[in-house]
Amino acid sequence: LPNRLFFENILQKVYSYSKRNSTIFGLAIIDLDGFKSINDIYGHYAGDALLQEISLRFQDCIRAEDTIARIGGDEFAFIFHIGTIKEPYEKIIDRLLQEASKIVVFDGNIKLQVSASIGISFYSKANDVDTKTLQKQADQAMYLSKTKGKNCFTVFDT
Q1: Dist CA 38 CA 46 (whole Å)
Q2: Is the whole-model pTM more than 0.85?
Q3: Alpha-carbon distance values, 115 to 26, 92, 94, 132, 158 (Å)
Q4: pLDDT level of residue 86 (50, 70, 90 thresholds)
Q5: Staple 71 to which of 4, 40, 107, 139, CB 3.0 to 4.6 Å?
């Protein structure tokens, strides 16, 4: 998956395009729940295998015009274009949650399982915020998902 630097570049391009053309896009911050314990119990090779498998699953969930990136540790970011979306974004987010919580088999017989907490913020002309604010909003919403019990998503609301 693209890294944080690539993600920042894409986010800036999508932001500039949306600002110029008055379109809406969403930013989701995805944090894996229970990942630290996988690393602690089974080691970093198991954690890496889990991240690789979940990354592949996430890529299969999104559309070609959207971007998903690993921005650090067990955290991902997903940029999705509302103007071109043919199905409600909630369906894509639900698929991401489902894929994150599926078992990953490591080393032939070790079953690893995590879940995901997702926070979403939207850019539109009406809430003309910069990309850093947009990321902070998505991050705050993600932490709210964790407090709500994890394995869910929350949309940022002022």
Answers
A1: 7
A2: yes
A3: 21, 16, 12, 26, 26
A4: low
A5: 4
